[in-house]
Specification:
By secondary structure, the protein is α/β, with parallel strands linked by helices. It folds into 2 domains: 135 residues, Aspartate Aminotransferase, domain 1 (Alpha-Beta Complex); 242 residues, Type I PLP-dependent aspartate aminotransferase-like (Major domain) (Aspartate Aminotransferase, domain 2), CATH 3.40.640. It has 12 helices and 12 strands. The strands form 3 sheets. A 7-stranded mixed β-sheet has the order 2-8-7-6-5-3-4, with helices on both faces. A 3-stranded antiparallel β-sheet has the order 9-10-12. A two-stranded parallel sheet has the order 1-11. Strand 3, helix 4 and strand 4 form a beta-alpha-beta unit. 48% of the residues are buried.
């Protein structure tokens, strides 16, 4: 085998050619390259029309009004803007925030910063399957709570949270509810009205769209604006100023359009591939599934291997593009705080592997992964036994 098999769709995804073509059209000097704020001429108007078209496509997927969307550079900025911006904007309501111990660092570090500014934060822990109990969220609420932030599906384990139940209890207590949907958009149905979500973070690059673009949904009836993180220009009602990257926004619009049309067929196809992978490796000795075996994304399979050293395992899987945790943790060399929250010990955390599949994954690739992974685990466990007896 000469090519590395890509199994890291939860980190980022290949760009769909249809998205690329629409983006290239926007970059043509005769089409929509203009500044969408410069609507006194045709170039700016065409750009503004393309931004409006894209907003409609994103809004259609999550069931909101296009005017309730704010364009950002991605889900990380959307999370920061939602958590910090909403907390500061509603500080007179209270300075207490509730989140979970397994959120993305974009939420956790935003909360940590707010804690230095006089806010208090409660971190609800998951059970051993990675589930957050809505009753635990309810128990954490106080008269000072202004914001709850819970991700829809975990980026490491794929475990899905009951955001509709949490949304209902937040609405009942008049507490704002933010959801990070970076991993779930296009894999799970999202209806911000029915789920009673007040702020929702989404991006494009986890769904075969471009990097560097995302959106934040703001429920116009519950929170019309947040305190901005950036200043200057006045675009997007001053909530997120700056010249809009029309080609990236257009790419995100096309990404969401494709998801809306193809999700019903694509989700079961990917789930079948994930289950095919699990069936091929589940019998390996010492293998443990991390997270809820049922209530998880169609695309993610996270396992730990007993009696195997983590660095050796990653070296033995050099032919596979995989992660040992989130992409952010891989970059810093940190072990997975998510798996530690599930009760995994240091050895199992270090020997964890996250497989994540997507649009261009095939059954042939999965079968190769099963063979490569099985051979590597068997070899390393054999060496481990020899070390124990030497």
């Amino acid at each position: 085998m000469t090519e590395v098999i890509y199994m890291d769709y939860a980190a980022t995804t290949p760009l769909d050619p249809r998205v690329r073509d629409r983006m290239l059209a926007c970059m043509d000097h005769t089409v929509a390259f203009g500044n969408p704020s410069s609507t006194t001429h045709s170039f700016g108007k065409r750009a503004a029309d393309e931004v409006a078209r894209s907003a409609e496509e994103v809004a259609s997927l999550i069931n909101c009004d296009p005017a309730e969307l704010v364009w950002t550079s991605g889900a990380t900025e959307s999370d920061n803007l939602a958590v910090i911006g909403a907390a500061q904007f509603r500080a007179m309501r209270g300075r207490h925030i509730v989140t979970t111990a397994i959120e993305h660092k974009a939420v956790l570090e935003s909360c940590e910063w707010l804690a230095t500014q006089g806010f208090t934060v409660t971190y609800v822990r998951p059970n051993e399957l990675g589930q957050i109990d809505p009753d635990a969220i309810k128990a954490a609420l106080t008269a000072e709570t202004s914001l709850v932030s819970v991700m829809h599906a975990n980026n490491e384990t794929g475990v899905i949270q009951d955001v509709a139940a949490i949304g209902a209890l937040c609405r009942d207590q008049d507490v704002l509810f933010h959801v990070d949907a970076a991993q779930s958009v296009g894999k799970l149905p999202i209806n911000v009205r029915e789920m009673q979500i007040d702020l929702l973070s989404v991006n494009a690059h986890k769904a075969c769209g471009p990097k560097g673009v995302g959106a934040l949904y703001l429920n116009a009836e519950r929170i019309r604006r947040v305190t901005p993180l950036l200043f200057g220009g006045g675009q997007q009602r001053g909530i997120r100023p700056g010249t809009l990257p029309v080609h990236q926004i257009s790419g995100m619009g096309e990404t969401m359009r494709i998801l809306g049309e193809e999700m019903a067929a694509e989700v079961p196809r990917i789930r079948d591939l994930r289950d095919r992978l699990w069936a091929g490796i589940a019998g390996l000795p010492g293998l443990m599934l991390n997270g809820d075996p049922v209530n998880r994304l169609c695309s993610v399979l996270n396992v730990s291997v007993a009696h195997v050293e983590g660095e050796s395992l990653r070296y033995g899987l050099a032919g596979l593009a995989i992660s040992s945790g989130s992409a952010c943790n891989t970059a810093t060399g940190e072990g997975s705080y998510v798996l530690r929250s599930l009760g995994r010990n240091d050895q199992l955390v270090e020997s964890s592997v996250r497989f994540s599949l997507g649009r261009f994954s095939t059954a042939a690739e999965v079968d190769q992964v099963v063979e490569i992974f099985g051979d590597a685990v068997a070899r390393l466990q054999r060496l481990s036994r020899l070390d124990e007896h030497s």
